[in-house]
Structures are given as structure tokens and as C-alpha cells.
Amino acid sequence: MEVGSKAVSLEELLKRKLTEDWGYRILLPEEVGLKEELGEDDIVLKDADNLILVSLIQIDLSGSLSPKVRKRVRGEIGRLARLSAYFNKAYIALPEEVLKLHKNKIIDVELLREAGIGLLSINLLKGEVRQLLPPKPRSSSRAERVDVTPLLKEMEGKIRKLELLYDRLENELNEIKKEIDNLKVRIEITNTSRSKEEEIPKAEEESGREVKIEDLELPSFMRDNPWLEVLRRRGRE
Amino acid sequence: MEDPEKYKVRYAFAEDYGTSMYKYGPVREYPDVIENRGLILEPSLIQRVFAKEAGGELKGKRIIVGEEVAMYLGSRDDMAKNLIYPMRDGIIDLRDEIGWRIVEEITRYGLRKYRPKGDQNFKGFYVAASLSATAPKYMYEKIFEIHKKIDEEEGLVKAITIIPQPLAVAIAEKSVTCMVVESGHGNTQICPISRYPIRDAIVSLNRGGAEANAITAEILRDAGYGDLVPEERLVRLVKEAIGLIPLDLDKAIRKAKEDKERFRVIFRVPGTTMVIDLGDNSWTRFLIGEVIFNPGHEIFESYYKRGVPRPRDTIIGEERVTGTISLADAIIKAAEKCPLELHEYLWRRVILSGGNFAWKVPKELRDVACDAATKVRKMLEDKGLKVHVGLVKDPQYSVWKGALTYALAVPENYSWDWKLMEGWYKWR
Hints:
The complex is a heterodimer. By secondary structure, chain A is of the alpha/beta class.
């Protein structure tokens, strides 16, 4: 159960202390590109070059501590641990009276330490905000998440250009290969025809010696082709 | 005087008249390729006035073929009107005067390119031209006539023979007994071969790359790129870049709809700033490939209703073959027309050839997309047949390679026989 009327004043006090006493500057979630990830009770602050996240947890004390509340706090610590990667420091802030009454039941300090998350207590009556557990500062944050869409688009364009270039070069190379093959065959045919002319004695030529196509240097699809023999008999069968 | 056989070896020349591309060239590893199309240029008003003033008259339309075509292209409207692909499903109508003039100019273009310079011994090429297995007799006569005319005008052809495209594929693949499935832009020919093409068993389908183009065009329209559709070349580029053959269409579509980003495709038209993004409709990539193999799938009905042409039926003798028959059923139909004892040998080697079977399979999509051979094998296996299906090494060039081998091997003194449809046709 949450108390709306207290929430405003808790939040106001927290913000005032953090800005006026601690010297932090409040940022909008949009400014760090995390609008979707941050909730209403998250406060984003800037201290020099450091980005700080404070998550305010508001709990009603009128009833006993329900398992639902414990679960919510644990969930909040988990969420903050994930988000803390984008910040230099991260805190959980709770009303002091909650901490006094239920500290050991709802907060696992070891877990907070391990996650590097700090703990703040807010005393509404005294108008105080105290740091009970300091956070572990991160040297660099990813908070200013870069929008990589334009970069990806640019990369995509470059890849596309390379693909087209590759296709063009491959086609050109294939054409050159074909042309070389064709030229080879032409040269071989010319040479073979010439040498055959020189080799065959006139008498033998006149005797009607059959030209053996298989003897010639021919394109690959003609070599060892059984059809040559089949077709040579056409008209004589 | 040089031995005629030796002369033939030196000056053999092959031509493959595909519906979309014309491949040509002398003895070499690969042919030259130009689009089988011509641009009709009407004489301008100024040209006509000057010609009249000079006391003459312009001889009418000029036809541009080959790489030059690109330099004369005007607006997209002009292009649609004046840029003509003369063949439809591998066939030209006997009375299509413009179509035959384009074929003549394309043939002349190819032969001229390889006229040997300064060779006193050159008396013309021995040309082996390859046509669709279903080409009617008048097409043979017209092709002979065109080559004779070119020879009379320019001395470029000594003799010509014509070979059916599936036989050319079998020759290029060095397979004497096999089942050839040749699928080009306009048609698909399924031809059992056992030393000769078994002509009575040929099944021809009026579908090929053009059907995949038509589906691609409709997909582009649906994605908001309707203005690009009139450019056939662009549609073909998109088809080749984004089209996928699904191993199983229904499963592929389901996966693509579940994981849209994985199948999303963005195509940047080379040399332009145009970008085509199919976005959430990227699952339609699979329809482009599937239509080649199974245009009878129920998903295509909505496309046919919206105006995508339904593949036309083929009449073979007294039998009507449905245009939307699955490729597996059509292959089985062709085999069933052959003697039973031949089946075993035919199933040992099913050869897929033609540009329409040259599909890319992106590595990251291999769980759902496959190549043409895997698709056909799976379709036939689903029918309970154990077959070996292979795709030729260069699907676009195998017909040309086979035709060239044919030109070299068929004896020079074997004259054309209309009954057997083979031999050399000569006029001098």
C-alpha cells in the first residue's frame, strides 16, 4: 500500500536536499535517453560529470509488512542494479521510519553492497536526508545511451555499396575469365588447324583422311563427348 | 583446296534462338548473348521531308538490334510500343513480318560480328541453329531462308542445320539417354532422348520465365511499384534478385509470415537510386519461384483472377495438356509415352537446363528455399519416383554448347533430310 499524499512531500524533500545541500542538478529522464526504463519515483541527477540515480521507495506503515512489499523492494533493488550500469552512482531512498522498523526485514545490506547501490534515509519530520550506505562509484557510465540507428543505417548503406561493388567485380571477373577461355580456345583452334595443315601430306589428304575432332583442342564440353561418335555416323547409318 | 570437314571445324558457328535471349558465336567456351528483341524506328517527319525533297523516299522502318538498342530507347511508352520481342513461347507466327525481320537482323548482327578479317579462305560459316522442340516446319523454312538471304548479301553462311533445343542440351551434357527439361523465358520443353529426341513423347508447356515475370510484376504492383512494371528488363532483374524456389510453398509462406524480418528483402536497382522494399509482403518472394514448378497451386488463382495470364494449354496430337500442370506431372507424362524398358534409363538422368532454372539460394534461407534440381527431385519423389535430377553447369548456355558440338560432329556431306529433320541445308 502506498501513500500518495506523503509521496509528494518525501520526494520534494529528497529533491530539495539533493539539489540544495548536496549540490546535485536534476535531469529529465529524456536527457539521458532512458525515458522508457525509468519510473515516476526515479530521480536522475548530475554531479559534475557524474550521473546519479536515486530510486525513492514509498511504503505505508499503517499495516504490517506484507510479503508483497518485501517482494517489491527486492524487485526494486534488482531493477536498480541493472540500471546502475548507466550511472556513476545509484541509491535507494526509504523513509527513516521504515528503516527503523523493518530494516533487516526488507533491506539486504549485503546485496546492496554487492550491487554497489547506496542507501538513503529520509526523515520527513526532521527534514533530513542521510546517507546510510555509500554507493560504489563507477568510473564510466553508459548513461548517455547513444542512438545507434543512424550509425547502423550508415553502416548498412556502406555494406550495401560493398555488396554491389563485390557483385560488379565478380561479374567483371567472370566475364574476363570467359573471355580468356574463349581466346585460349580460338588460339588452340587456329594453331591446331595450321599445324594439321602443315603435317598432313598431300597424298594422305587426297585419300580422304577423316578429321578426328577428338584430336583437336576443343572447348571442354566437347572433350570425351560420346555424342561426337554418335553424330559422326549420321547420314551413314 | 581445304578439306571440307576441316573447314567446318574451323568455321562452325552456333545460334540459340531463345525467347528472351539470342546466344551466338563460333568455336569457343562461351557464346555471346544479346536480347532477342528489336527496336522499330519510324523515320522522323524531318527525315521523310528531306528524303522527298531529294527525290527519294525512305524505305520505311529501321530495326535496331543488339547492344545499340539501349541508346535509342525513348520514353517507357515508346519502349512498350516499339521494342519487340519477336518470339512467344519459342515460336513466331508465319505471318509476323516484323518478327521475322527482327530475327533476320539479329542473325545478321551475330554472324557479322565474327566475320574473319582478311581471311581469303573464309567462304561462310557452318551454322547450327537451335529452335524449340515444338517449332513448326515453317520456322525451319524461315530460318533457312534468312540464312540463305544473308549469305547471298554478305557471304556469311556456307550451310545451316537446325537442332531441337533439348537435343542440344543432351549433347552438351554428354548424355546419350536422358530426360531433358529445358525451360527458357517463353516455354518449357520436356523431351526424352535416346540417341534421337523421341519426338512423339515431347511435352511442351507454354510457360517459362515469362510467368515468373508476370507474378513478379503483380507483386511489385501490390507493393506500390506499379510504375516500374512496364519495363520488362527491370521486372526480370527484380525477379532474379528476390525470387526464391520454396522446398514446400505452404511451409515457406508460414515461416516467412512468422519471421518477417528474416525474409524481408530490399532491392536496390543497380546503377539507379531506385530501392524496392517488399516489407511485410516479402513472403511473396516464394511465389515467383513456385509458379515455374506448380502454377496450379491454389494461391495463384487470385493472381489469375486479377489479370496475371494463366499459362495456356498445349495441344499435343489429340491430347490437351493443361497449362497449369505441375512440372513433375508433365515429366511423368513425357516418360509414359516412351517404351517401359526405357523408363529406368530416363530416370537415371533428368537434366534441367535453361535460364529459368538458374535460381540463387541464399545460405541463410536454405531451410526453406532450394535450387531447381532439388525442387524437381522432391516433386518426383512425392510421386513415388526415385530419380537423379541435375542442373546443367551453365543453364543459359547449354543449348548453344550442344548446337556447336552438333555443328562440328555432323558430317559435312550429310544433306538436310526433311523426314529426319537433320543434315546440312545448302544452296551453293
